[in-house]
Amino acid sequence: MKPFRFSLESLLVLRRQKERAAQQRYAQALTACEAARLQLQSATAEMAVGWDLLGLELENGIPAGRLASLRTWCKVLEIRWNERKAALNEARRAAGLLFQEMTGAVRDREALDRFYDKSRRAHIRAVQREEQKSFDELAVQMNGAPGPLQFTCQNN
Hints:
By secondary structure, the chain is mainly α.
């Protein structure tokens, strides 16, 4: 009997490539999330230092011009923090979408793997049936008992 050949082999290769690409994109998204988280953490620290400096200056009494510039600087730090927070939320959203894409690609590949396994098992069973038929026929011929072909010829 001929060797097993999976008719959807090219599709299986494509699904594996798609899954690998989705995994890489997801990994990149997780890296981007971590970078955005670190930037937000840095902005949080900068903002805390700015507000602490403003508080210290207010305790010691400062001129109005210095107060206005420190207040403006704190607002700038707050805007920067808001931008980085939005960037982190966007990175997490993108990572979530890429995770869904990756799990879909895994599911598609696993379905095709199951079909491959099922087809291979069916092929193996068919080969075993053919071998068993051959062995049975050989055993019948060796015992001298009439086989199906011999029985048909004798009746004619």
